[in-house]
User: Fold this.
Amino acid sequence: MVNAWSLLYDAMEDDKIVLNYDRDPVVDYDSYYSVKIGEDNITINTSKYKYDEDQIVKELLEYINNTYNQHYSSGGIQTLDLIESCGDGEAFCRSNILKYASRYDKKGTARRDIMKILHYAVLLLHFNDKNAVRESYETF
Assistant:
């Protein structure tokens, strides 16, 4: 089994690291372990996320948290609460996803548009779960 300690030991013994481990056909170990050897330091990344999904989700959560400090929630009631009470929560979220996707990188910043799309997707998932029979994750 390859772990950070074995990689560090190998790095201390050699100038380069040779990963010797049995390949599990289900797990792509190359996306789990990366090692960078600098002149004065060794960086070992054991994240299983090849595309920094964990960092992006963390940033999305920070973005969502900041929306609660904006005008959308003045007085403790969000406009979305009123829209949902009319039965239009899912349609509103779906429409906003389309709006921000269609104007992507044309008004404001592209990254902010993506954050808005993702935020409305999270809200759409909330209303979907609230209004429909929940789908099983095993089917994905």
In short: The beta strands are 34-37, 42-45.
